[in-house]
Model the fold of this input.
Amino acid sequence: MLQNFIGAYSPDNLHYLFGGLGITLLVSIVSIVGSFIIGSILGIIRYVKIKYVSAIIGVIIDVIRNLPLILILFFTYFGLPNLGVKPEIIPAAILAMTIFESTMLAEIVRSGIQAVDPGQMEGARANGLTYWQGLWYIVLPQALNKMIPAIVSQFISLVKDTSLATIILLPEMLYRSQIIYGQNTNYIIPMFVAIAVMYFIVCYLLSVLARYLEKRQA
Amino acid sequence: MIHIFQAYGGTLLYGLGQTLLCSVIALVFSLILGTFFALLEESPNKFGRAVARIYIEVFRNIPLLVITMFFYVVFPLYVIKMNGFTAGTIGLTLYTSAFIAETVRAGIGSVDPGQMEGARANGLSFWQAMRFIILPQAFRYVIPPLGNQFVNLVKNSSTLAFVGGFDLMYQGNVIASNSLQTIAAYASVGVLYLIITLPISYYMRYLEKRLA
Done:
């Protein structure tokens, strides 16, 4: 058994696995940045109640939020080619993650804005700021502060969800571990231990950060 | 999309059935496990608290797919053979139970601590106070987040497609590759998922508003 572990954790295999961790983090970080921008825009539109537009965006957000991420991954990778666009694996994964996470972040942004005392906006308006100035300079900075722990938590589930992209053959950790133990079945347990530990460390550190931020706020 | 339903209606309904079956089984068992670990974490026993903390952190911070693959790949080699549906349902149960434990714990935390002190002062033991005073009050706060967990559970049950669990997502893939109409096939699957998840989401939002 010990020999299996030593064999499985050869420098080459570890290097290969850490490369997978790199892809996991790359996809996660690009997606979270993209979905923070798109999600903020969608969340603000949903909050300010522009006639029709906000309602339509609300429905789109609810629909995407209530679909499995795997379905969206299939859609971007296998469905889009039918429409004449053929994305590569990594862009397809990032696109799917960004679409899905934007809707999650839109909800976080909207509830963050709603959690700001309405008196703040009234005060801003009473002091002569326009609605959008009040939103931008007074309400949003306070809302952002309230949203940060929730965004970090969402980032944790994003990191975990990148493992689903093995189904479109994204070469991240889980996929690479399968390649390694596919060559030698004695390496199955060492590989599962390795990726479980790697995911755990990344996600646990992030959850400690989320909890710290939450405490600092309270 | 209509022709997909006409040609593959039976397959899709079978998949929907498997998805619902797996979700309900996983919900029942993860509610039991989750409540158990939440109580253990709130208990006065130091060792119990540590066990609960470790359980929750481990299953919350490892991807569902890794847990499911563990039961699908590793378990049959050394312990017992199981099909994809069983492996997927076990993985889903363990993963969700950690989130339910956190939800229930937050619910217990939202009950005024004076309730517990009052119960103890009136001679109830810790567990009696939990059972008769705290949990019934916590339950009310916990329902909307639990409903959202159920929505997540239904969505996450699509990991069964990885292990040949014959769920909705799996059938959707089969149909997509048979009919070559990927967009129509995935859209049909999406509609069926939404039929389950959207009403629950909206109802939970309504309950949340009413509670606030």
Observations:
- Chain B touches chain A through 38 residues (CB under 8 Å).
- The longest helix of chain B spans residues 2-42.
